[in-house]
Amino acid sequence: MLTKRIIPCLDVKDGRTVKGVRFEGLRDAGDPVALAARYAREGADELVFLDITATNQKRATLVALVRDVARELDIPFTVGGGIGTVSDVEALLMNGADKVSINSAALARPELIDELAARFGSQCIVVAADARYHDADGWQIYTRAGTHNTGRDAVQWCREAAERGAGEILLTSMSNDGTKDGFALDITGAVSRAVTIPVVASGGAGSKQDFTNVFQQAHADAGLAASIFHFGEIGIRELKEHLRQDGIAVRL
Amino acid sequence: MEIAIIDYKGGNVQSLLFALERLGVQATLTADHDVIRRADKVLFPGEGEAASAMRELRAQGLHELLPTLTQPFLGICLGMQLLGRHTQEGGGTELLGILPFDVVRFPATPEYKVPHMGWNNLQALRGPLFEGLSAEDYVYFVHSYYAPVGEYTIAEAAYPAPFSAAVQHENFYAVQFHTEKSGPVGTRILENFLKM
Asked: Which of A203, B19, B138, B157 could pair with A173 in a Cys bridge, judged by C-beta atoms 3.0 to 4.6 Å apart?
């Protein structure tokens, strides 16, 4: 039976993990490779690396990181963050990334999704969608690290991304991100029903029950979180044991 | 031990090279017929689209070479599907015809998304490739097309109906999942293959 996936997300800058990671027994918590290997051992199903480097060396640093991670890691990983061209994607995939996520570049020029899917196959193209709730307009899509409202409806954009050939949607609720009050069940459920590709839910995870809810009520295919894993608030194994007790298929 | 990885521009082979490196094994990425024929083991990975893969194999004459190989051979993901007779992908594409299956697309439903992406367990395991493994073991899949179950099937997975997770005909073994991305279980399968 296909299992629900648990995905820790690591923010990286200049090849180092950021957002203080508090892990006992990890000599260098800023080393993405060591952290990735630890998560893999604990039972993470995949990893996401979000690169927030903003220098001219960005691409070279990210390619080097991908190579280092792929050399060590025997589970799949996605890289994202400011990726905008076919040649960026090619360099990352050829050096061992399993999937590449695109966000602002896809909204600026949606045809990029078609081009990437045709060139590399849908299976490795993830469209990351950042959504924020407005009382008047509902869920709207934001770009440029959440600073710019595109005015596009979240469900409609995710459907378009899927039709253009995305292989997966990484849906982050900016309204929930950082709150630890749980995932945005309404928009996650709406997107999951609107597309026939897998949907990764992100933003708001604070407890094990939040993951149960997003799988059972919003039909997400995977749940992504950062700080609750990095700060050791929830162990991946104990999370998966909780999910299994709730009748959710997981890999243990 | 000489290991050849067939080079037909079939996508990301770096992960497979790294997986072999972790096992302390050197491999050569090549399309050279003599090198492939002489190798002790042949690996045939693949990602992407079947029609363009077949075009590249034909351009290099590999469509004629591969069926004649006699050493242990392991197809991975698209490299498994290409061993069949025909696929629905690319508006209908003729394949290598080494195994008697026809590749079809999963019907996408709200409950069963396509691609079939993630960790699924293996059932009905048989043969040396799966020595030491059981139906409790999970491997990583990413694919939209599949080979139905037949007499050539040596492992099944279900999505929701059973399909071929692995197939075999004589020296030709192939797996639909990514051995190089399936944690310790995938490593064991690669090791089992290298011992053949």
From this structure: A203
